[in-house]
Write a structure and sequence with these properties.
heterodimer, A: alpha+beta, Thrombin, subunit H, 3 domains, six-stranded antiparallel beta barrel, 12 strands, 24% strand, globular, disordered C terminus, B: mainly alpha, 61% helix
């Protein structure tokens, strides 16, 4: 019975249960154990999946007023805004259709040249359209939740694109929804290729106070990077298909005291406001398995070269 | 029964209302994260507020175990480290249960000042856990979150005690 209520049942005198302090110790230790397991051993995926699936009806319920608000906002937007949007879309479509016409031609040419050189064909991936449900409310991480999960065939590690470039990577798959870590997350990295010079590097997420960007780390101070260079996926990681636009270099600072240049890039994808995305499975899963190396006894030096050639294929 | 002066005798709390208010708080947190506010760090935590409220008013019904379960749900919903919110809510709930006898003797405005350190401690605990996990400083606005949450205490008192403030419904045939 709590203070000042007309409760009819007396408080229990003898069946008090555990004291508050022992409950705190017990459950606090359990929470710490869960955190360590989650961080180090990744054994908690089952608990997470069960809880997420149980929460799905609540999430749908919470989505309803949000969707109403969005549809009301669309309904009451100005006619001029809608017209300008339609015009810019049709202009972009016209620009893209010219390029799209060349793609068939170039694909054929590429295939013939690759046949001629005896190279393996490029991997064609099949995409899965998805919708962003909401931003994960964690101020430390940059993640969004999409409405496709393991039942629709989403795999962990898949690349996620929006209409203008790579958005991120699927990091956790639940039965009905999946978590996508955005490229601007502190712990996310993506192998990129400078389309002007062909130099490969890795772009790391760099969340900022106002603007979230990517950073090319460990670029030599005299590296050939300029503002306006376009970075695309390099395809050497067996995750992202090659040639997807990732980011544009916005600033290059070369400091005399540092051996490395500070290269800041702005991602093409709309990290904060995108709604519709495409999920591409990791290209590594589509590649044929590497041929088995015959177990023969070589001298040490030759063995190493054989392993290297196998790796480079 | 010894009661603070000028206080009404309240009706007993309906358990269904208690649990549905906690579920509604989860729903409110989801709605805040979906409605454009996204990952803004100053957004108040409605679930923590509701949990502390019921820990203070009904410590026998909503205790530390409930706080742990709701913390796990928040961890899953916000895709954070599993156990991070659970730990914060367990500590929050322990402190709320241990001050519940004293807190209700104060007027609501003073109670707000009493619960502010609780929410600040929970926030500091989350920050410490993330710092140990290698994360940096989230944003300066995250210092505002406990203030926002504690600022909603009078509103929570008004809304969540409203069903108990109804006039008692006497039975005509059994007046006592």
């Amino acid at each position: 019975m709590s203070l000042g209520t007309l409760d009819r049942s007396p408080p229990p005198f003898f069946k008090q249960g555990l004291s508050a302090l022992s409950k705190l110790t017990l459950l606090g230790a359990l929470a710490v154990l869960l955190m360590v397991t989650d961080n180090r051993f990744a054994m908690t995926a089952a608990i997470r999946s069960v809880l997420v699936t149980a929460l799905t009806p609540l999430q749908w319920l919470a989505m309803v007023p949000v969707q109403w608000g969005q549809s009301a906002g669309k309904r009451f937007q100005l006619l001029e805004t809608a017209q300008a949007k339609a015009e810019s879309t049709s202009r972009a479509l016209a620009e893209q259709s010219a390029r799209a016409g060349q793609v068939e031609d170039l694909t054929l040419e590429n295939k013939r040249l690759r046949d001629l050189l005896g190279l393996r064909e490029r991997v064609a991936t099949q995409g899965l359209a998805a919708q962003v449900l909401y931003d994960a409310a964690d101020p430390y991480a940059h993640r969004v939740i999409i409405d496709q999960g393991a039942t629709q065939g989403v795999q962990a590690g898949s690349a996620v694109l929006d209409e203008s470039g790579v958005l991120g990577q699927v990091t956790r798959v639940h039965p009905l929804v999946s978590e996508v870590t955005l490229l601007t997350d502190r712990e996310q990295a993506i192998p990129v290729l400078n389309t002007r010079t062909g130099v490969r590097s890795v772009a790391y997420g760099q969340p900022g106070l106002f603007k979230h960007e990517l950073e090319l780390r460990f670029m030599a101070g005299n590296a050939d990077v300029q503002e306006g260079d376009v970075l695309s996926t390099s395809g050497v990681d067996a995750v992202y298909p090659p040639g997807l636009p990732v980011a544009k270099v916005v600033s290059v600072q070369r400091q005399a005291e540092s051996a490395f240049a500070r290269v800041q890039c702005e991602p093409f994808a709309q990290m904060g406001s995108t709604r519709h995305v495409l999920v591409l499975p990791p290209t590594g899963l589509l590649l044929p398995p590497a041929p088995a190396v015959p177990e023969t006894k070589h001298p040490r030096g030759r063995d190493k070269t054989a392993r290297n050639t196998n790796k480079s294929r | 029964m010894i009661m603070p002066q000028g206080k009404h005798l309240l009706l007993p709390a309906n358990p269904l209302f208690i649990w549905s208010s906690l579920v509604a708080a989860i729903l409110g947190n989801m709605l805040l994260s979906m409605s454009g506010l996204g990952r803004a760090a100053w957004v108040p935590d409605l679930l923590a507020l509701t949990l502390v409220f019921w820990n203070v008013h009904q410590p026998l019904r909503v205790g530390i175990g409930a706080a742990f379960v709701f913390g796990l749900i928040m961890d899953v919903q916000q895709t954070t480290l599993l156990g991070q919110h659970a730990l914060a809510y367990v500590v929050l709930s322990y402190w709320a249960v241990s001050i519940h006898r004293r807190l209700l003797w104060f007027p609501v405005s003073t109670q707000t000042g009493h619960v502010l350190p609780l929410f600040a401690l929970a926030q500091a605990l989350v920050m410490a856990v993330r710092f140990a996990g290698g994360a940096g400083w989230p944003a300066w606005s995250s210092l505002l979150a406990p203030v926002c949450t504690a600022g909603l205490w009078p509103m929570a008192t008004a809304v969540l005690l409203a069903p108990q403030r109804r006039p008692p419904d006497p039975d005509k045939h059994r007046p006592l």
